[in-house]
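Title: Prediction job returns without error message
Component: structure pipeline
Severity: low
Priority: P3
Assignee: unassigned

Description:
Job completed but the reporter wants confirmation the result is attached to the right record. Sequence as submitted:
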Amino acid sequence: MKAILALADGKFYTGRSFGATGEATGEVVFNTSMTGYQEILTDPSYEGQLVAMTYPEIGNVGVNPEDVESRKPYVKGFIVKEYCSLPSNWRATRALHEYMREHGIVGIEGIDTRALVRHLRDQGSQEGIISTLSDHPEELIAKAKSSPGLVGRDLVREVTAPAPYDWNEGKWELGKGYKKTETEIETGTEKKKRKKRSFFVIAYDYGIKFNILRSLVESGCRVKVVPARTSAEEVLGLDPDGIFLSNGPGDPAAVPYAKENVEKLIGKKPIFGICLGHQILGLALGGKTYKLKFGHHGGNQPVMDLTTRKVEITTQNHGFAVDPDSLKGAVEVTHLNLNDNTVEGLAHRELPIFSVQYHPESSPGPHDASYLFKRFVEMMKKNK
């Protein structure tokens, strides 16, 4: 079936449909990862976006029930050069197009994704629409132009958990699947003694990825996830050893309730933030954020840790960044992106607080920065 991708600036591309039929509108961004499309589709940080993959063939490993990063896919539309409808992988349980159709994700293949990415790189990410319903590009361009965009929209409310929950799943092991951690529990009058986790962490869910939670568990943490609007007073009432601020979609300035809660938590408990959590922490510490031209999306972004001068290859997915010139003197920049010198990490000079813009949990992507979870544990240990 014919499909059209139209951009708000008047550019359009004609290709073939795969996945669901219909129309999908959102900000068009490109992801430079070679693998991990299922994790990308289910990353809540992509709420409100259409994702174009720069790797030319997508779908060859199918999908499976283990490689998901959230409750459901959040990508609005998927753009690829060539779709492989016959997967060949021992873990695959179904084809990608079937999974997309089930979840209402509209896809387009057969377009020149190199030309699209060059256009987005030069002109910037912008609103677009994928349609299998219309043969009229002008009509679709008008719809793309009328799309609200990401700036000023609270997308966190679309992806956060409806209620608190405990997480006890660790990393995946070959032949065993995901490990379940043991805790000390009581069942009626019988007390079952199991291995107790060392540190209790409250994780704010702004659109949290499962592998972040698994990484916290593997580092020795007992984790409770709370919705994004949970008050600071309620969190402190649970008496955690540390507080984690998660990744999530959209504009950090559009979730003022998150900033206000974090402001009340500063100085009370150790805090670690990732991605949107990093940006919200930056706002709470007195900084400002701004929108990047086309963002960072992929598993191959070089970052320098200024405290060690070591370079890490990192996974990233964000369209906003913290303005370093807006930060107060108590905050220092700890990491820089070597492609464009944007801020990739912050730390408070006196308090046990730090954050990174990238994703140390990988999934997909490299594991260079996984040590940061251990750093958080050491921080909690010193302040317990």
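Comment from assignee: result matches the submitted record. Residues 183-195 have pLDDT under 50 and may be disordered.
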